[in-house]
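Narrative progress, year one. The postdoctoral researcher (J.K.) led the effort to move from monomer predictions toward full complexes, under supervision of the PI. The following entry was the first complex the group processed end to end, covering 285 residues in total.
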Amino acid sequence: MTINANIAGARAAARELLKKNGIRTFPVNVEKIAKSEGARIEYAPLDGELSGLAHVREGVPIIGVNMLHAPSRQRFTLAHELGHICLHREQIESTVHVDRGSLRRDTVSSAGIDPTEMEANAFAAELLMPADFVEAALNGKVIDLEDDQAVAALAKRFKVSDAAMRFRLDSL
Amino acid sequence: MSEKALYRHLGRAVAARRNELTLSQDQVAAKLGLSRASIANLENGRQRIMVHQLFRLVDALNLKSILDLVPPIWTFEAELPEINIQLNAKEHSTVHRMLASAFVDDRRRKRSV
């Protein structure tokens, strides 16, 4: 397969959605955005590393979130699955799309390789941590990515995991 | 089990018992006050009979209990579409439960609209 991930397109879709929903403050209310897109959100326990799922049934988008994970991770999962619904709707109409550890980028994770996972991650990062919001929060300051405390403080304000924030800061 | 599967289960049990007693669909239909076509549809799983009819069916087929025709418990489980990744049994059952719950709520919501 030689399909390249359309990261710029995924980010643009997330920004468009923020604009459409009139989101100007953080932490971004991702649940409200998903609902305004007509999604049904199901919080339930999933086994192990499964983070969530996305599926469209009879025209109704369904987002499943593993409620056993930390709240910040649940928010990322929700945003990631919403990304699949916005970007890969056709695929998830015919199959149930289950995600295993959407934020793990180690060698065994498909998230770092599979174009659709890369797009959904880029969408989620942009939705939860829009570049301009992060820059506004930094207010001209530069955060050292090694400074765990500073990264954690910023992550807390956006209600995301430290890892997600570090990754975001790295890609800004 | 899906609803479809439940009615297919009932239909097969009725047909098997009727054949055992060498009754015709007409004869069973007459006992229930239904048409022969209704019994044929019931046996194919396409007819959704009412509870009192289920009990009359038990009587017409000389059975003791509705449990001779239907399972003791039944919970709605939709027939799942294909899943994109390979799941182990435990993972699969949690995913299944999550989807079944989402699907059921979906139906409830539609009814209330």
